[in-house]
Structures are given as structure tokens and as C-alpha cells.
From TrEMBL:
One of its GO terms (molecular function) is 3-oxoacyl-[acyl-carrier-protein] synthase activity. Residues 81-327 form the Ketosynthase family 3 (KS3) domain. This is beta-ketoacyl-[acyl-carrier-protein] synthase I. The lineage of its organism: Eukaryota, Viridiplantae, Streptophyta, Embryophyta, Tracheophyta. One of its GO terms (cellular component) is mitochondrion.
Length: 327
């Protein structure tokens, strides 16, 4: 998922000040403690706002704010017991399940955003997304589970197992390791949205007796980490984080801290998403978050452009294998 809001948002604060001679008050906006502009308030507004400190309320002068100090990059960690490195990568994307292919497509500037054909989107005001086609889980998920699983978890399992392979941690190698020291932390913003949508539809149309027994387990957001751990026998820290578009970043941070604190030697960590379905697209249209560039979908994703008009829905998974240099 990308950003929920398409327009720029200021997290500034407002500080009210009264002139020494009394009269009209002014409201100065600060963005990161840098003044942006001043807004003249009505003379009738005389009481200081509640969020000001007691000392600020007593002051008759202008309330001043200092500019934010320059922030330097964090220093490189030199303690080998705390240094965390990446040894394997796996992905599922619109360009396939190969990391090198995915990276080369990025370098070529090729867009994977196309018109949706998974369902009839002709009546939707947004008709494009980063839809995955011809996905194959052969060699990674058995046939029965492949038919039952939500795409969100299928993508997670394939990306996770490919990352382990890339790190030379196949099943035979894992059997020789202490798997209680290997954790899994794969987050998702939406979870098993297809399973959830299908369960609600069955409930409304046919009643609760026709709901799938997998409705709950395949809808909840921690199922990606759980399934990957069950399939590989990993018994270290296991849970998920869901923080919308920042989900995977928070997972990477949390996984690194598990390793630094000595709670795990290896962490399989990443994010997975599969929300290109009517409920997913329709829901984001309803909150006016998506770009409407149906005539040029390959140019629609432009997060830092002054002409941006929303984000673009996509799907896939990305998983890394990280470990401590010395363990």
C-alpha cells in the first residue's frame, strides 16, 4: 500500500500570541518548528489555548520557537555482536518471482502498472493497479494449501522460501540449526482480504453455516509469519506488524532489534500484500486515495510530483533473511 492521502499534509502546530499593546491576536503556524505564516485572529478571541504551557500563557510577548537542529546520519555499528546484515532476498512481483529480474526492471524504468483484468472493473472510477499475473507457487506450496490460501499468504510463502534459499538456508541446512533461534516477522497492511471478503459475502448471502472454516485464520494479519514458520519449522520470535504503508519498514526495524538484543540469531522479515480485488480497490476509491489516470496507468504512480492525484494499488511480497555477523 502506498500513502493513504494524495495531498501533502503538514504536521505543524499553531502557537497563539498577543501583541504587547493588546488588541488582535495572531496564530503562527510552525512546521517542524519553522514558522510558515501568521493568521490574524478576531479580537474577541482573548483566552490562550489550552495546549500552551503555563509560562507561555503568562507571557505577554511573542512566543518563539527554535528551528530544528540538523540531524546527522546514524553512526555505523562496529560491535560485531550487534551488526545485522542481509544474506538472502526473495520477492513476488508483477515482474515475476526473481529478485534480479525485478531489480533490472526497476533500473530500466519499466512500470508494472496495468489495467485490471482479474475482475470486471469497467464500472470503477479507477481501473488499474500493480496486478500480478501468471503467479506460480510450484515447488513451494502443496496443491491443497495452494487452493485454500489467500493470495496474500501464497505470495508470502514463496517470497520467504526463496529468500531462505538465497541465503543458502534450505530445508536440509535448517535441520542442522537451532531453529528456536530463527524468527519470522512478515507484516501486512490488509491481511487476507480475499478470504475476509469471501467470508462476509457467504454470511450475507447464505448464512453463517456456509462460511469457510478458514475465514478467520486466513484473514488475520499474522498468518503469513505463522504459515512460513510452520512450513520451515522456525521457532524463534513470530508475529506480524500492521502499520499501513510503513508495515515492512517497521518489521525490518523490529527484526534487527530482536537480533541486537540476542533474542534471535536469524530473522526472516518482510511484507506481503494482495488487495487487488473489488473490496480493496473500491474501498480506497471511497476514501479518495487512488490516482484516476486510467488513460496512462504507467505514469500514475508519482508520489513526489506536484501533479500527483493519488497512489496506485499494487500487490506482492518482499522478504529478507537477516542475521548477526557474530553469533
Amino acid at each position: 500500500m502506498a500513502s493513504i492521502a494524495s495531498s501533502s499534509c503538514s504536521s505543524g502546530v499553531g502557537i497563539q500570541s498577543r501583541g504587547i499593546a493588546g488588541g488582535a491576536s495572531s496564530l503562527t503556524q510552525f512546521n517542524g518548528l519553522r514558522p510558515i505564516d501568521s493568521i490574524q485572529l478576531s479580537p474577541s478571541i482573548t483566552s490562550p489555548p489550552a495546549f500552551l504551557s503555563s509560562s507561555a500563557r503568562k507571557s505577554k510577548g511573542t512566543v518563539r520557537a527554535m528551528a530544528s537542529p540538523a540531524v546527522s546520519a546514524p553512526k555505523r555499528e562496529n560491535d560485531p555482536k550487534k551488526r545485522v546484515v542481509i544474506s538472502g532476498m526473495g520477492c513476488v512481483s508483477v515482474f515475476g518471482n526473481d529478485v534480479d529480474t525485478f531489480y533490472n526492471k526497476l533500473l530500466e524504468g519499466q512500470s508494472g502498472i496495468t489495467l485490471i483484468d482479474r475482475f470486471d472493473a469497467s464500472d470503477f472510477t479507477v481501473r488499474f493497479a500493480g496486478q500480478i499475473r501468471d503467479f506460480s507457487s510450484v515447488g513451494y506450496i502443496d496443491g491443497k494449501n495452494d487452493r485454500r490460501l489467500d493470495d496474500c499468504w501464497r505470495y508470502c510463502l514463496v517470497a520467504g522460501k526463496r529468500a531462505l534459499e538465497d541465503a543458502s538456508l534450505g530445508s536440509q541446512v535448517l535441520e542442522t540449526m537451532d531453529r528456536t533461534r530463527i524468527g519470522v516477522l512478515v507484516g501486512t497492511g490488509m491481511g487476507g482480504l480475499t478470504a475476509f471478503s469471501g467470508g462476509v459475502e457467504a454470511l450475507v448471502q447464505k448464512g453463517f453455516k456456509k462460511m469457510s472454516p478458514f475465514f478467520i485464520p486466513y484473514s488475520i494479519s499474522n498468518m503469513g509469519s505463522a504459515l512460513l514458520a510452520i512450513d520451515t519449522g522456525l521457532m524463534g520470535p513470530n508475529y506480524s506488524i500492521s502499520t499501513a504503508c510503513a508495515t515492512a519498514n517497521y518489521c525490518f526495524y523490529a527484526a534487527a532489534n530482536h537480533i541486537r538484543r540476542g533474542e534471535a540469531d536469524v530473522m526472516v522479515v518482510g511484507g506481503t500484500e494482495a488487495a487487488v480485488i473489488p473490496a480493496g480497490i473500491g474501498g480506497f476509491i471511497a476514501c479518495r486515495a487512488l490516482s484516476h489516470r486510467n488513460d496512462e496507468p504507467h505514469k500514475a504512480s508519482r508520489p513526489w510530483d506536484s501533479d500527483r492525484d493519488g497512489f496506485v494499488m499494487g500487490e506482492g511480497a518482499g522478504v529478507l533473511v537477516s542475521f548477526r555477523v557474530v553469533h
